[in-house]
Each structure stands twice: as structure tokens, then as C-alpha cells.
Amino acid sequence: MSTIDTHTETPVTIDETPPGLLRRILRQRQAKVGLALTGVIVVLAVFGPLLLPWLTGYTSTEFAGRPFQPDGLFGTDNLGRDVLSRFLDGGLSLLVFAALATGLGMLVGTAAGMLAAYQGGWLDSVIMRGNDVLLALPQLVFALLAITVLGPQGWVVVLVIGITHAPRVARVTRSAASAVITEDFVRASEMYAVPRWKILAKDVLPNITGPLMVELGLRMTYSIAAIASLSFLGLGMQPPAADWGLMINENRTAMTLQPWGVFLPVLAIAILTVGSNLITDAVARASATVEESK
Amino acid sequence: MSTLAPNMEQQTETALQVTDLRVATTLGTEILHGVSFALKPGRMLALVGESGSGKTTAGLACLGYFRTGLQHVGGSVQLTDGADLLELSDAGRRGLRGGSISYVPQDPALSLNPAMRIGTQIMEVLRVHGYGASEADRRNRLAEVLTDVGLPNDAAYQRRWPHELSGGQQQRVGIAMAFAFRPEVMVMDEPTTGLDVTTQALVLQTIHQLMTTHAVAGLYITHDLAVVSEVADEVAVMLAGRIVEQGPCDQVLHAPQHAYTRKLLAAVPDLAGRHRIGEVAAVTGAMPIVGVEPAASVRRPAAADPDTASLLSVADLRLSYGSATVLDGLNLELGRGESLMLLGESGSGKTTAARCIAGLNDDYTGSVSLAGKKLEPGTRKRSAEERHRIQYVFQSPLSSLNPRRTIGESVEVPLHMSGTFSRKQRRALVLEALDQVQLAASFIDRRPGQLSGGERQRAAIARALVNAPSVLVCDEVTSALDVSVQASIIDLLRTLQVETGMAMVFVTHNIALARHISQRLAVLHAGRIVDMGPTDEVLDNPQHSYTRELLTHVPAL
Q1: Do B405 and A206 touch (CB under 8 A)?
Q2: What DSSP state is assigned to residue B529?
Q3: Chain A neighbors of B377, CB-CB under 8 A
Q4: Rounded Cα–Cα distance for residues A157 and B393 (Å)
Q5: What is the C-alpha to C-alpha distance for residues A74 and A92, in angstroms, rounded to an integer?
Q6: Which of 371-390 (B) contact A at CB < 8 A?
Q7: Are B258 and A3 in contact (CB < 8 Å)?
Q8: Is A292's Cβ below 8 Å from some Cβ in B?
Q9: Can you give the three-state secondary structure of B219-265, one letter per residue?
């Protein structure tokens, strides 16, 4: 009896790992546009203050002339200070506070969410019902209340915005983590009596980075908007410090006379928000393709 | 429009002819390289192949359907009237699907709409395709088709929800749906894979009856060669997108021409233990059928040592969730170096029992003792030494390794936890374990995504081996794998057992593996052991009616 044997080429094992998250994000045009927009504003906000007197001849609190005059490149503001100087100096605090608030929210939210998903039972109920209570309070109203009580200081703003982010982050984390926790590799770590925090840090966290990255971008956008709003309402940075939100409030009375004082910070905040939103979208899309290809 | 059952003179005609079918991914890689087969009324063609061979793609192409990411690049699927199915418009194809060509998917639990009563679901097919003249006609047909698949056809049964049916009943409803409109061609994609042997036997019988009495042309996609021999008239063996051998069932299964078919057949475990399943390419093939003696007996220094007589003993293990009793007083003893098969169908409590032994489940009452010492329930309460000595291997290799960690990192977790080894020592031990499971050293820095199912399962076994356990609990470790990979894993486990002298609890639903892996066999039914003894004795002379029933339903080549 003869044997037939077709020599089918053994399937070429694709050793090339699928491109990492970062590369897949950068491959999208959205992400490039978003990065460019955000990058411009970040560079402006970070390096602006360093170049101040050299670039415009004034610091941000120095009086350059009479109020609302077209002196200098973009004129003067309500107290006669140079608008460009104040604009260049006013972005950094917003960025730093927004980043700190987002970081705090992510940290607390992720920890609470993973713990709730992993422990389950009464702890889960306590954390998640606590979340619901916090979620029922509108973010800005809560912030207004806290700032009125504790005073308009930087750390209060960061804390308040961070805490209002945490429940939202915790929700996303919990749902992502509860899918991972049922996997056998978590049970295997349990079996080897790996400490619980280590299971969360090494087995659960690396497997939910996709949704967390999306949440990070989203929360960053909201932080920027919330902190700018608080400044506009006079509850963030206090005069005479330069701040974009504050600038809008100070200069809005003479918008027809001297539009730059309002227009420049509005433009900057808008570009920053749109840019970070575009990046978030790209991250979301990139991490969704990971899930599919798994 | 009503379709009459094809009359018998069409016997020799072809109901569906697939010619030189080529399918490629949208990126251009060809998946099917020119597949041709013919389906004849009243005859069943089995399309056999391992995962990734393209059998499901070929089967779905018969319905004119290609999964997302795949496209048709050549060849035709012709119906009786000579029309090419693939030339039809989308609407035209939809008109045929469920009408003259129907499909039975693999998992009945997923394919039935859980929010729709079963009668309504079958009626939907009849309504969409406009069966009969009136609603009464359709009602009659519904009752008829339920009888055809061996289910009750009364109104109360028709009003049941899918979750009120067992897996086998759900699959029969799936078949009834596919059969309702009297199709000329039925494509079945592994319809019995998720079912227990007894249920599988019933479903296969139903399918066989329908095919022959109503002259339907069938395509049966499966990886299980034993099932093929039960249902198919003809067999086509697929390998990497090609049909490598095709012919009458008897000829292909008993006088295979192609080397791959032989390799596949050699890998199928048989209940009688006539051949050795280890004889597969890339496997050592060193171990014959398991001997009656415990494998490690040769090396056991003092067999008379009284406290080593029983290494692991489980006494009166009980566990229930609410009113549902999962384990109902389980007793078993495991000797040193002995291999015990814990056999049970789904829901028998076999996995729960295995997890209680390994300490993964701490809700039980009763006792699990290792070498005479009673173990605490729950791994966290057991000592490091006790944890090392009992190791557990999970069923699914896809889920038991963290996709974000390298194989090396996953395998060294148990060593990390014992905390006595330096980084270098750990790496050396990991490499040794990988070597034991026949994985090359280069695997240490790879991630699970870069490994095949069999390789992942080997890595998972390596993780269990790094601490040199005395008991290895294997929970359905081969059920997610292809037969040839299963054979190599079984071969590996046997080799390891002899080399290391560890005892093994092999939990499975696949009774055909019994003679290939175990010296003793325990049959679990509804949470208690109904039959236990040396494998040969239990298989040749089963004491309990349940074991006898199981044995009669095992499909064999």
C-alpha cells in the first residue's frame, strides 16, 4: 500500500509581534493631528513663562500701559498689563493642575475599582454604592462647595477635581477588571498564594491598560475644562496670578474693544481640549483592535 | 412556495457541488487552496481536520457565507439547478439559507435566542421562508419537526425558553430549526462537540435518522474521527486549506492512503487501548499503554513503608451551593506514583472535586489529606510545602497564562513564592522545567500570544512542575486541544510520571483516554463516585449501571 504525502508548506509562523499600542496609536491620522495640537499648547505653556521678559519686555503682572489699549502685539488687559505676557504665563498652572487632578483620580479610581472587582462581596457593595453617591453630585457644584469651605487654593482644586473623577474611573476599572479576574491565570496566582496586591498589580492591571488609557485621556480633557471653569468663576487661581480661565473673566467686559484678552486663552483651551480628545479617540480605537485580535 | 422532499430517484444526483473553492483573507493570504467536494441526497460527508485547517470556512462557503476578513477568490458552489451560489446577490443567498440550505452551529446555547420561546424561534424560520399556506400549516410543521428530532411536540414544550432545556435538547432544537423548511443540504459545524457522550449518541442518532429518511445531503464538520465513523458515509480530510484525502468512510478510516490521515488516526485514543496514541510525529512515543502497576513502583525505595501506602486521601468530601449539591460524599485514595482518572460528564462535580483537592475551592466539608496530614481548605491557609506538593493544571491553556507576562515570568511564579531562590537559580529551574515539557529554552522570553495551544499547555504544565510536586491534578488538560496535540500531551504526562514518580489525578470527560493515561479509574456521577477500580477492571466489568451506559455510548472507530 502506497502512502501519499502532500508537502504542504508548514504555516509560516508570524514571529513579528503585532505592533504595540503606541505604534498603532501613531498610525492613525487623528492621533497625529491631536498630538500636534496638544503639543503646540503644551510647548507654549511650558516654555512661555521662561521666555517672558525677553520675548515681550514685561512680566505677567507688570503694568504695560493703560487698560484695554492696543499697545504691544496683542494689547493690554483690564489693568493695563500686557496680554501676550499674561497669556504665555497663564497656561502652565492649568496644565499642571489638570495633570495632577487626573493622576489623582486615576490612582484612586483604579485602586478602588480593582479592589471592588477582586474582593467582591460587601467591599464591592460599599465601594460601588459610595461611588453612586459621589456620582449623584454634579462635579462643579461639589467643587464650588469644597472651595468655598476650604478656600481657593491649588491643592484644593486638584483634590476636588481628582476625587470627582475617581468614581467614574472606578466604574470603568471594575468592569474591565472583573472580566480579567475570572481568567484562570488569576486563579493560578491565587493557588500559588501570591499576595493579593501583587495579583492586582501584575496579573490584573497590565491586562486592563487599554480601557484605562482611554479613561485617562477622557479624564484629562474633563480636568482641563473643569479647572478652567473654576478659574473663570474666580475659584481657581487668584489675581494677580496669570491664568487662562481667569483672563477670560477679567477681559470679557471689553471683548468688543480688545478681543485678544479673551480670544487667546479661549483658543488655547479649545485647541488643548480638541487635541486631547483626538488622542483619546485614537487610543480607544487602537486598544479596541487589541481586544479583537486576541 | 413549498418544497417537497426530494424523491428517491435523485439519489445519485448531486445536491451541492463545490468546485475548486478558493478563499483568501482580505490581506491576500489564501486560506483555502482549491477545495472540491460533492454532497449527495441522503448521504453524509464528513469534513475532518484539526483547528485552522479551514474546515469551517469551507462549510460556511456552502451557505455562501464568508466570515469578516475573508473573501471568495475563486471556484464555485453549485446547486442542483446548476446555479452558482456565490454568483447570487446577498438577498438571493439569504433566501436560500435556512430554506434549501441550512446550518447547525456548534454551540446551541449561543445560537438560540435566550429571549425567545423555542416554538417561536422555529416558527420564525418557517414564516421568513413562507412555509405552507397558513399559520395552521406552519403550526403543524412545527409539531412535526419537533417529533422528527425526538422532542415532545406539545404546546407546553413549544413555549419553553432555551434555558429550560438541556444542552442536548437545545442542540436538537437547533437541528429542528435547520430542518424545519425541509432543506436539501444541511451543514453541521461540530454539533456534538460540547455535549456529553450519552447526549452525543442521541443527537447523532437523530441526525442520522433525518438524513436517511428525508434524503437530505449533509456536510458534517468535525475534528472527532470516532464520531465520523458513526455518522458519515464519506470522509474528506483537510490539512492547511486542502483536502488531502477523500473517499468512503470505511476506506479512509481503515485503509488511509495519506500520511496525514494516518497520523490523525494514530492520535485518536481508543477505549480498547489497541494502539498507542503516543506514536505521533514530534512525540517521543516511548510510553506504551499504561501498565497495571503504578509507574513509579520501580523506583519506589520501600514499598512496604506503611504511611506511603496512600499519598493523597479524600474522605467524605461534600460541597453544595444553596440547595444544589455538587459533591455528595466523595472518597478516594491515591497511591504514590499512581495515576487515577476521575471521569465524569458535565455537572458531575469533577472539576469542583479537583479544585477542592488543590485548595482552589475552600467551601467544602470533609477532609483532604496528603501523606496522612489533613490539609486546610484553601491554598492561602496551607503551608508553602503543602502547596508545592499538590499542583493543578487548568483546562484552557488560553486562559491559564497571563498574556502580558513572558513564559519565564509565569513559570517562575511558584518559585518566587517559595522565596528561597536567587534570580539565577530561578531561571535555571525554569529552563529545566521547560526542558522537561519539551519546550526549547527560547520559549522563556516569549509571550503566550506567540505560542500554539499545545505549547501553551506545555508551559502551564511546566509551571506546575517547577516545584517538583508529588501530586499533579490535571483538569481536562487536553479537552481544548486537537487530537494530535492531545496525544503528545498525554505522552508527555506519562513520560513525566515515570521520570519524576509523581502521582496524578487526571480529570476528564473523555473515557477513551482511560487506558492511555491511568492505572485506576473512578467514575463520578452526581457528586459521588459510582465505580472505582483498576482501569481494565472498570472498563471490562463495570459495576454500576451508569458506567455501563457510558461505555455503550462511546463512539469508536
Answers
A1: yes
A2: E
A3: none
A4: 51
A5: 20
A6: 379-380, 382, 384, 387
A7: yes
A8: no
A9: EEEECCHHHHHHHCCEEEEEECCEEEEEEEHHHHHHCCCEHHHHHHH
Site from A1, A180, A182, A192 to mutate, B interface, most B CB atoms within 10 angstroms: A192
Indicate the SS3 state at residue B166: coil
**Residue A29, Cβ density class (10 Å: 0-12 exposed, 13-18 middle, ≥19 buried):** exposed
Task: Answer for the pair B237, B228: CB distance below 8 angstroms, yes or no.
Answer: no
CA distances to A186, A200, A220 from A109, in Å: 21, 14, 14
Chain B residue whose CA is closest to A184:
B400
- State ipTM: 0.74
Q: Which of residues 171-210 of A touch B (CB under 8 A)?
A: 183-185, 187-194, 202-203, 206-207
Cβ separation A194–B413 shorter than 8 A: yes
- The C-alpha cell 502547596 sits at B387
pLDDT per residue over A45-82, tens digit each? 888 887 777 777 777 777 777 777 777 777 777 777 88
End-to-end CA distance of chain A: 44
| Residue B213 buriedness (CB in 10 A; 0-12 / 13-18 / 19+) | exposed
Provide the 10 A C-beta neighbour count for residue B331: 14
Is the minimum CB–CB distance between A4 and chain B shorter than 8 Å?
A: yes
Alpha carbon of B38: minimum distance to chain A alpha carbons (Å): 22
Interface test with A, best of B30, B402, B467 (most A CBs within 10 A): B402
Report yes or no: A43 and A27 within 8 Å, Cβ to Cβ. no
pLDDT digits (tens, 9 = 90+) for B476-535: 888 777 787 888 888 888 888 888 888 888 888 888 887 788 888 888 888 888 888 888
Give the whole-angstrom CA distance, residue B497 versus residue B471.
Answer: 10
Could you tell me the CA-to-CA distances from A264 to A86, A222, A250, B76 in Å, in that order? 10, 20, 13, 65
pTM (2 d.p.): 0.77
Under an 8 A CB cutoff, do B400 and A188 touch? yes
**What are B532's three cell numbers?**
472505582
Residue whose C-alpha cell reads 462647595 in the numeric block = A145
| B394 contact A CB<8A | yes
CB contact under 8 A, A8 and B242: yes
Alpha-carbon dihedral angle through residues B485, B490, B495, B496, given to the nearest 10 degrees: 100
Locate B296 and state its grid cell: 513509579
Q: State the Cα–Cα distance between residues B493 and B461, nearest whole angstrom.
A: 9
